[in-house]
């Protein structure tokens, strides 16, 4: 009896070691645990259940995408990069520029890939110079959060909500007139928000080959003028992002243009005070095909150069960006999916959208107009985004939009080394 | 061991005692400082494989670029506000509490703890409290101002105001610490000096302060000055949590710029140059203070 016991333990031990040897372990890096921690656990569990020969180990998460990229760079200097990483959609090119990301093209069969829900627009989020370096894992675009109570008090209607910027500004002015502590509208003076308003006018921040800045184009000046009008007509205060994110749920701000990823947070923060409602951003051009909304969120990149690990990582990447993964991401984070199958096929998220009409509005906008969040090339690429923000501060405080954007574009060309 | 003289053995003991700490200092402080100094002459990008030496280019940018210069002037202005106010208020509070200790000891202790609270509390948590208080439309400060008929201000998002708001928070945060130091200094003043001053006819509060308290507090004041100066030069947390240097760089300071350039923009070479400039500032300031004040400080 005793002998038998020992044998069975030995057999069991042998069995576990054999399994442990067979397993490929992949290390996964992610950021923003407040949004992602649970989702990452679920994704890893579900993936391992489907692929028992691969073990997923989650690194301790970074606090933000900015911290995450810093950590990855440090780890690359120290030689202990994880095998695969979730990074901000606007940050994977920092890794790409340093040769840390592995191109995914060898793994992708273009035709099959499209039929698996990776549309051209969605693939564009992770492409640079014709190479696929990243796959989107979650998406968000700029939407309008509206306080229906204030709209009603101002004599507006939620059913007949304005679909042009002129109409929105007019409504904002009426809301602003409701009281000293009530503001009409607010949008952050920030690169991504500006790119969104620019995209709504069909404009782009740069030429397609990234050789010249086009912020001083007609669309660029029109987008900057919106900021000026928001401030002068719509009662936009000079809040920073935190202040505005406190004011809106408190019920003192009528319309807030913010990332669709904040939906859950706003809905919870507003609680019973009012029913947070999402409206899609107005399009300010007749040429609807030229409209794009820069897409925030996260992408997944492959970092390992080991063949065996690459194969395992690719399986993992396909899983988390495929319909099963995308469904889990949407249900758990509030981000929009980056796989077209889950949007087309109601079997995946039909009932979720029925319960969350706000999410449906936001996600439909992503599906219709998702586009890359342009990162400016070169060493000064991140630094210039703060110059754009500073120029928008000038505009909201009364500077002339055309002159400001012309000067800004010239400054950016100098800083980015674009001869013009 | 036998062959060594007593002197040599003593020498070895000294080396053994001072060695580990010196080595740690060398490896952990001096080597990184030298590395940073070298990096400041390069265009190194965080995480990049290569870099080029570009001479004094980074320093030139820092001193000529409007944003770099703004960070320097903002820091100097911040320091110029925080040092005098936090020291004067801390001294007043300390004298008050020291006097109060003789007739209302428990109250004095409670107030002392209250003044010290901002020092003990986590600044990031405090910053969130400040953010709520200073909110332009729903904050307590503006609500109060409106109630008494004054216009509210955009404390943290008005470009002309934001640096002064941060300085006020800096003063609030420093008073408690300085107060404790001054209290220790006050407690160390021997009572017989006041008696002697009284014999010489200096028995009014003001005279007692000028003839005894202030001269005897000299060493403490010097210490407080140096600590406050270096601390306010290092202002970072409030900037990072409350304004991120904005709006439009209006509250950018040297250390925040250093962080931004190095860890947000990944321009490690430029950030190193800022570090060296910051280091030189603090060094010069400290040496001047010691040089100027040491001679005039009254040590017992």
Secondary-structure blueprint:
The complex is a heterodimer of chains A (420) and B (300).
Chain A: H1 2-22, E1 24-29, H2 33-50, E2 54-58, H3 65-78, E3 84-88, H4 92-97, H5 110-115, H6 120-124, E4 127-128, E5 131-132, E6 134-140, E7 142-146, H7 148-153, H8 165-176, E8 183-187, H9 191-200, H10 218-232, H11 241-250, E9 253-259, H12 263-270, E10 277-279, E11 293-294, E12 296-302, H13 307-321, H14 323-333, H15 340-344, H16 346-355, H17 357-369, E13 370-371, H18 383-396, H19 401-416
Parallel strand pairs in A: 1-2, 1-3, 8-9, 11-13
Antiparallel strand pairs in A: 3-12, 4-5, 6-12, 7-9, 7-10
Chain B: H1 6-39, H2 57-64, H3 66-103, H4 105-120, H5 123-133, H6 140-147, H7 162-187, H8 191-199, H9 205-216, H10 218-233, H11 237-243, H12 254-264, H13 268-294
Helix pairs in contact in B: 1-13, 2-3, 3-4, 3-7, 3-10, 4-7, 5-11, 7-10, 10-13, 12-13
Gist of the model:
The complex is a heterodimer of chains A (420) and B (300). Chain A is built from 19 helices and 13 strands.
């Amino acid at each position: 009896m005793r002998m038998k016991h020992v044998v069975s333990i030995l057999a069991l031990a042998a069995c576990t070691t054999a399994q442990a040897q067979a397993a490929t372990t992949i290390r996964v890096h992610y950021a923003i645990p407040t949004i992602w921690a649970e989702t990452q656990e679920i994704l890893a569990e579900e993936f391992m259940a489907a692929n028992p020969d691969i073990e997923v180990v989650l690194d301790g998460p970074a606090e933000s995408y900015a911290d995450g990229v810093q950590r990855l760079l440090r780890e690359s200097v120290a030689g202990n990069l994880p095998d695969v990483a979730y990074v901000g959609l606007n940050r994977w090119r920092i890794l790409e520029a340093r040769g840390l990301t592995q191109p995914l093209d060898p793994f992708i069969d273009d035709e099959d890939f499209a039929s698996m829900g990776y549309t051209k627009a969605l693939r564009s989020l992770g492409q640079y110079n014709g190479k696929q370096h990243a796959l989107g894992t979650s998406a968000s675009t700029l939407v309008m959060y509206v306080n229906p109570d204030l709209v009603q008090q101002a004599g507006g209607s939620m059913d007949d909500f304005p679909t042009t910027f002129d109409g929105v500004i007019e409504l904002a002015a009426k809301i602003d007139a409701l009281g000293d502590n009530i503001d009409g509208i607010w949008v952050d003076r920030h690169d991504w928000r500006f790119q969104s308003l620019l995209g709504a006018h069909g404009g782009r921040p740069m030429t397609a080959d990234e050789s010249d800045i086009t912020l001083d184009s007609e669309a660029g000046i029109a987008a900057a003028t919106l900021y000026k009008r928001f401030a002068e007509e719509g009662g936009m205060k000079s809040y920073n992002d935190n202040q505005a994110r406190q004011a809106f749920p408190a019920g003192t701000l009528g319309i807030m243009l913010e990332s669709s990823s904040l939906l859950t947070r706003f809905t919870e923060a507003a609680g019973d005070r009012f029913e947070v409602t999402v409206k899609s951003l107005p399009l300010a051009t007749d040429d609807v095909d030229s409209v794009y909304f820069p897409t925030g969120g996260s992408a997944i990149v492959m970092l390992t150069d080991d063949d065996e690990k690459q194969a395992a990582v690719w399986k993992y990447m396909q899983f988390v960006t495929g319909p099963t993964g995308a469904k889990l991401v949407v249900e758990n984070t509030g981000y929009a999916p980056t796989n077209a199958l889950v949007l087309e096929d109601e079997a995946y998220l039909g009932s979720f959208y029925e319960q969350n009409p706000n999410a449906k509005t936001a996600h439909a906008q992503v599906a219709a107009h998702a586009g890359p969040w342009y990162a400016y090339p070169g060493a000064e690429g991140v630094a210039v985004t703060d110059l754009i923000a500073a120029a928008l501060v000038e505009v909201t405080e009364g500077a002339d939009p055309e002159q400001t954007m012309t000067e800004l574009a010239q400054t950016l060309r100098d800083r980015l080394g674009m001869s013009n | 061991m036998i062959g060594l003289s007593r002197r040599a053995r003593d020498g070895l003991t000294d080396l053994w005692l001072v060695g580990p700490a010196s080595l740690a200092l060398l490896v952990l402080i001096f080597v990184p400082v030298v590395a940073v100094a070298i990096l400041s002459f390069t265009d190194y990008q965080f995480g990049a494989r290569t870099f080029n030496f570009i001479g004094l280019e980074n320093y030139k940018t820092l001193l000529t670029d409007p944003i770099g210069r703004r960070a320097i002037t903002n820091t100097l202005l911040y320091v110029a506000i925080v040092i005098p106010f936090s020291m004067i208020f801390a001294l007043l509070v300390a004298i008050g509490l020291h006097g109060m200790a003789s007739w209302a000891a428990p109250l004095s202790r409670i107030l002392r703890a209250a003044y010290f609270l901002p020092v003990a509390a986590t600044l990031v948590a405090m910053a969130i409290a400040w953010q709520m208080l200073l909110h332009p439309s729903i904050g307590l400060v503006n609500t109060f101002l409106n109630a008494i008929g004054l216009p509210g201000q955009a404390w943290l998002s008005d470009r002309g105001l934001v640096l002064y708001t941060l300085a006020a928070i800096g003063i609030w945060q420093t008073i408690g610490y300085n107060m404790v130091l001054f209290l220790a200094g006050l407690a160390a003043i021997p009572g017989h000096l006041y008696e002697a001053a009284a014999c010489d006819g200096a028995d009014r509060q003001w005279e007692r302060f000028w003839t005894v308290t202030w001269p005897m507090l000299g060493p403490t004041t010097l210490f407080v000055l140096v600590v406050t100066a270096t601390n306010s030069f290092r202002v970072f947390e409030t900037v990072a949590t409350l304004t991120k240097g904005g709006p439009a760089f209006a509250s950018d300071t040297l250390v925040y710029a250093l962080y931004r350039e190095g860890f947000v923009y990944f321009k490690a070479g430029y950030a190193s140059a800022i570090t060296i400039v910051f280091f030189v500032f603090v060094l010069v300031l400290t040496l001047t203070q010691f040089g100027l004040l040491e001679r005039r400080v009254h040590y017992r």
